[in-house]
């Protein structure tokens, strides 16, 4: 036995390629301060969190509930749900917005007047929603500092047009991005023809919600825009996923790829690039580095072409590109099961936070409380894993966004179906999940 055991250990170390086994023994997790949930007896989800000018924060998502933490909501269709907290994590107010059909909030920014601009997609044509062009429309709402509606606008065609990202631009306008249902749009879209897929759809509006321009990018299959960032010289880089190999897409690698498009301030395409392998790869978030390079985060099931390593079913995949779209490096993070990244944010202390979910308890992931857990990792400028935390209960728990607070703490938001282990309470199906670490 003294001879066999070292041989088996050596074989295990050689056969596992994920930067050696159980990398997490070298990582220092953040300290968990509190976990809390908000919601009612139905489905409630947080999609986005932002720092506010008063050193508090605001959370946008959507709610189906009409009870417990959701006040003055009279029907069980989904509505946008906005929650405003002060710097001490005390809820100051929460409000829902929508009509009697399905309305789901996805992104928000604070405006120069300390109000908010929120966006997502809506199927309603009553209540707070004045018009609907068919199925889902991009629905954007301007609020004052207290959450009262100042104006609202819908953009869309007959099909399912869904907004996922909203960014304030350096000229005090706003970009709203998402996917256009080309097959139901009456010939809209970059391909200018009826086809079964979707295109990236990007709309520029001014501070009053007036449309300045609208642009489409894509091919004949499914192209979905999830995030965008402004570059140092006023151009923009768009990221999402695509399985097209024609029209705007010149180098599809296989199945879904990270599809990255650079445009100028008027929406004209400068370049486009695909990154990935032969299996599905999807990009959900982009963050600019200090030297005008870009980190793009999502997940990969591939182990070839641009993807050098994969520990299991799906790993978080992070790529770094320069302003010309050249791939500088790529890294995967995860275990032998399924991991996905939903967002990446720069830290004031250096490095970046990546948030999403994990089903693993090996390689980069120290533990799993059951089913899917929230997973947050911190990396340095070169992609080296510095710390990781897995937080959850026995059901489905995931993070969609993260901010860093004034005192360098971390707040994650997402949704939870659990009411045990590290999740203190669940009021219904899924609840808004808020986690504070430092």
What do you see in this structure?
There is one protein chain. The protein is mainly beta. Helices cover 3% and strands 47% of the residues. The N and C termini lie far apart (45 Å).
Write a brief structural summary.
The chain has one helix spanning about 5-15; strands at about 30-40, 45-50, 55-65, 80-85, 90-95, 105-110, 115-120, 135-145, 150-155, 160-170, 175-180, 200-205, 210-215, 225-230, 235-240, 255-265, 270-275, 280-290, 295-300, 315-320, 325-335, 340-345, 350-360, 375-380, 385-390, 395-405, 410-415, 430-435.
Helix content: under 10%
The helix-and-strand class reads mainly beta
Total strand count, please? 28
> What is the average of the pLDDT values?
92
Q: What are the segments in which pLDDT stays under 50 over at least 5 consecutive residues? A: 1-26
Shape: globular
Order of helices and strands: HEEEEEEEEEEEEEEEEEEEEEEEEEEEE
Number of helices: 1
Report strand order across the widest sheet. 1-28-27-26
The main sheet comes to: 4 strands, antiparallel
Rg is 22 Å
Strand content: over 45%
State the end-to-end CA separation: 45 Å
List the helices and strands and how they pair.
Blueprint: H1 4-15, E1 32-38, E2 44-51, E3 57-63, E4 79-85, E5 91-97, E6 103-110, E7 116-122, E8 137-143, E9 149-155, E10 162-168, E11 174-181, E12 198-205, E13 211-217, E14 223-230, E15 236-242, E16 257-263, E17 269-275, E18 281-288, E19 294-300, E20 315-321, E21 327-333, E22 339-346, E23 352-358, E24 373-379, E25 385-391, E26 397-404, E27 410-416, E28 431-437
Antiparallel strand pairs: 1-28, 2-3, 3-4, 4-5, 6-7, 7-8, 8-9, 10-11, 11-12, 12-13, 14-15, 15-16, 16-17, 18-19, 19-20, 20-21, 22-23, 23-24, 24-25, 26-27, 27-28
